[in-house]
Amino acid sequence: xxxxxxxxxxxxxxxxxxxxxxxxxxxxxxxxxxxxxxxxxxxxxxxxxxxxxxxxxxxxxxxxxxxxxxxxxxxxxxxxxxxxxxxxxxxxxxxxxxxxxxxxxxxxxxxxxxxxxxxxxxxxxxxxxxxxxxxxxxxxxxxxxxxxxxxxxxxxxxxxxxxxxxxxxxxxxxxxxxxxxxxxxxxxxxxxxxxxxxxxxxxxxxxxxxxxxxxxxxxxxxxxxxxxxxxxx
Length: 233
Prior knowledge:
Layout: H1 6-15, H2 17-34, H3 44-57, E1 61-65, H4 71-83, E2 87-92, H5 96-100, H6 103-106, E3 110-114, E4 130-133, H7 139-152, E5 158-161, H8 175-185, E6 190-191, H9 199-211, E7 227-230
Parallel strand pairs: 1-2, 1-4, 2-3, 4-5
Antiparallel strand pairs: 5-7, 6-7
Helix pairs in contact: 1-9, 3-4, 7-8
């Protein structure tokens, strides 16, 4: 996976159009069936970009920090299923995800650890090759993973962090402010579809989806604060 861009994502939307359509339909049906018992966190663009990057990168070991009700977990597992390879290692202090992820998705490709990931460093694979973070959004937790987790996993792996850009700038004393500062200090470029930060990106990707007949929303939300980047080498 090279640096993420609208152009590269447009190509991935076209390449995996049929598979993505099937996943979107399945997720939409699941959300309608579960109703309020499934609180979806990722918006459509964030979820779809995650799925597409996982399909393109074809990781063997994905680490997901923060599952909540399992919406992101299902998107990640769908990508691993469609790749026919890969294992997901998820961590959260609550286990709502266990009751939501369908057995046919988890199968033998998922390991869930309940508890604070900071207390389970030995369960994070040394050869992790994709990192997904959507947990505690405070500055303290962000300092922990930038200082401890980032150096512990292989350099150069694709990484994403949720809830960074709800506005033009990250909130002061937040996870987002710590991460953006860390990226700047390490001269790491990042990509975001955030409506608040990069409305032109969201508009362009929405047009791509419209051209492919993927405009119908899975869930009605347009707040896309996630950032995508590669850890420095």
